[in-house]
Amino acid sequence: MSAASLLAALSTNGFATWLLSRAAADVPLARNMAFPPQNGSTSSSGEKPRILVVDDNTDAATSLGRLLSLLGNDVRVVYSGEEALAQLVQFKPRIVLLDLGMPGMDGFETAQQIRGRSDSDPPTLIAVTGWGQEQDRARSEESGFVEHLTKPVNIEQLEALLARLRPEK
């Protein structure tokens, strides 16, 4: 059973969210948290997929980072748009999971900055947000996000999306 299947099975009544939140609470929070990959998932070049999680909600960001690591990704977690921009150069993510409703530089502005600073091969942007109205989804699409996921994120949907985005082996 994959990590996603296990967490999906446990997600009734919010148990998986509680479990991940409790696991995250046992580790002191640090800026720019890194979670090395936990299984054998690789891209065609043999690298672990690099994913940047950006969310001002530290519990949500850390939990998602841990989950993505269990799914075999090389993950960095930051808590603001400004920190995300710094990771473009340091970490060079292939995928950015970006909260839209952050204080200061929101997700839309962060996405614009990412696209403006990226070379010819910018990272894929995925909105992960509590905003789920049709106008929110339309604005995400107009802003260059390839997908708009609402919180709490469906783990199986996220795993399928990441599989589609992964280069062929």
How would you describe the overall organization of this protein?
This protein has about 170 residues and is α/β, with parallel strands linked by helices. The chain has a single domain (about 5-165), classed as Rossmann fold (3-Layer(aba) Sandwich), CATH 3.40.50. Helix content is about 45%, strand content about 15%. The chain contains seven helices and six strands, in the order H-H-E-E-H-E-H-E-H-E-H-E-H. Strands 1-3-2-4-5-6 form a six-stranded mixed beta sheet, with helices on both faces. Strand 5, helix 6 (about 135-140) and strand 6 (about 145-150) form a beta-alpha-beta unit. The longest helix is centred in the middle third of the chain and has 13 residues, at about 60-70.
Summarize the structure.
The protein has 169 residues and is α/β, with parallel strands linked by helices. It is 43% helix and 16% strand.
Q: Helices and strands in order, then pairings?
A:
Elements: H1 3-10, H2 15-25, E1 33-35, E2 50-54, H3 58-70, E3 74-78, H4 81-90, E4 95-98, H5 107-117, E5 124-129, H6 134-142, E6 147-150, H7 155-165
Parallel strand pairs: 2-3, 2-4, 4-5, 5-6
Antiparallel strand pairs: 1-3
